Amino acid sequence: NAGVTQTPKFRILKIGQSMTLQCAQDMNHNYMYWYRQDPGMGLKLIYYSVGAGITDKGEVPNGYNVSRSTTEDFPLRLELAAPSQTSVYFCASSYSKDGGGYSNQPQHFGDGTRLSIL
Amino acid sequence: GNSVTQMEGPVTLSEEAFLTINCTYTATGYPSLFWYVQYPGEGLQLLLKATKADDKGSNKGFEATYRKETTSFHLEKGSVQVSDSAVYFCALMNTGFQKLVFGTGTRLLVSP
Fold first, then answer.
1. Which residue of B has its CA nearest to A98?
2. For testing the chain B interface, which of A107, A111, A113 should be mutated: the one with the most B CBs within 10 Å?
3. How many other C-beta atoms are found inside a 10 Å radius of the C-beta of residue B112?
4. Which residues of chain A make contact with B44, given a CB cutoff of 8 A?
């Protein structure tokens, strides 16, 4: 009954450090997403993937990278951490039968990673 | 472009009060509409959805009706409980895409 699992739950980084936020899902969903949630700003899409080997930019991709080597995993990489990247990061997944043809399938979210950059 | 506007919070109510959280949207085409709920320290959970005009989504006593003429999807509950305290997000997903556009969220605080 795992669903979407994110690690770590909390992390503090220094400016200029790098890290990878892990995301795994066990629902065999083809779509996966990374969002950031800033106070009072709702969720913004960083990157998404429609299947293994395929990724694309969302609204706010600068400063991040992703890869999707398997259906289950979708890690998010911060190469040079900056204070503006302090946020709560959510990974989500969903299933689309025809690669986008179904627009009403719900996204399942992980519990988030709270990241502070000092 | 696509956007979602929600009423600002926090919304503070006493237990058993009636709840309305307003949500309006701007979209091209015919989007699907969603309400997600986020409890403290957790991720977002789908609360209800509606996929076409005049559809009513409902779950756990919450309801919302897709009103195309007013481009609205207001969330209602007849009698709130302390356990309903959370942040509620309205969102849309446009036809042919699997990308959600979220509102800024409305915090609900229910006191005993």
1. B96
2. A107
3. 7
4. 43, 90, 92, 107, 109
Contact B5, B101 (CB under 8 A): no
| Residue that has been written with the tokens 């036809």 in this structure | B95
Does residue A61 sit in helix, strand or coil? coil
CB contact under 8 A, B46 and A43: no
A33/B76 Cα distance (integer angstroms): 29
- Residue A8 preceded by cis peptide, ω within 30: yes
Beta-carbon separation of A101 and B41 below 8 A: no
Strands, E assignment, B1-112: 3-6, 11-14, 19-21, 23-26, 32-38, 44-50, 56-59, 62-65, 75-77, 86-93, 100-102, 106-111
Of the candidates B34, B28, B51, the one whose C-alpha atom is nearest the C-alpha of residue B100 is B34
Give tens-digit pLDDT for A5-60: 999 999 999 999 999 999 999 999 999 999 999 987 788 999 999 899 999 999 89
**DSSP 8-state assignment for residue A26:** S
CB atoms within 10 A of CB B69: 7
Whether residue A63 contacts residue A80, with contact meaning beta carbons closer than 8 Å, is answered with: yes
The two three-digit tokens of residue B18, written as one number: 């009636």
Report which DSSP code applies to A110.
-
Chain B: closest CA distance from residue A79 (Å): 25
